[in-house]
Amino acid sequence: MGTINLGIQIVPKSRKKDSYELVDRAIAVIAASGVKYEVNPFETVMEGPEEHLLAIAKKAQEAVVEAGAEEVLVYYRMHIRPGQDVRMDDKTNPHR
Q1: The Thiamine-binding protein domain covers which part of the protein (predicted)?
Q2: Local structure of 6: helix, strand or coil
Q3: I want to staple 73 with a disulfide (CB 3.0 to 4.6 A). Which of 11, 41, 47, 50 is the partner?
């Protein structure tokens, strides 16, 4: 399979930690992965091979737990085109 888009929204719950700080931990994992990504107000979208993106997503949610989240809600959205790559730029450049 080729390149897909994976949107991930991580919603940490904690009585002691700031939720934005916890989300920043997840974004740091994604940024360090080297994949193309874009942070949006409600989710972060990554571009790459599906299995690789799912592994990054798993590490991101684990980082939030390790940083002190007591509970984590994780939402995924994937855009897949069998036999074709899905590129963020193809979808967003016409609107910029």
Answers
A1: 8-93
A2: strand
A3: 11
pLDDT digits (tens, 9 = 90+) for 27-67: 999 999 999 999 999 999 999 999 999 999 999 999 999 99
* Domains, in order of start, for the chain: 3-83 (3.30.70.930)
Contact 63, 26 (CB under 8 A): yes
Burial of 25 by CB count in 10 Å (0-12 exposed, 13-18 middle, 19+ buried)?
Answer: buried
Tell me phi and psi for residue 5, to 5 degrees.
-110, 135
Question: Residue 27 corresponds to which tokens in the numbers above?
Answer: 């974004």
Number of separate helices (H) and strands (E) present in the chain: 3, 4
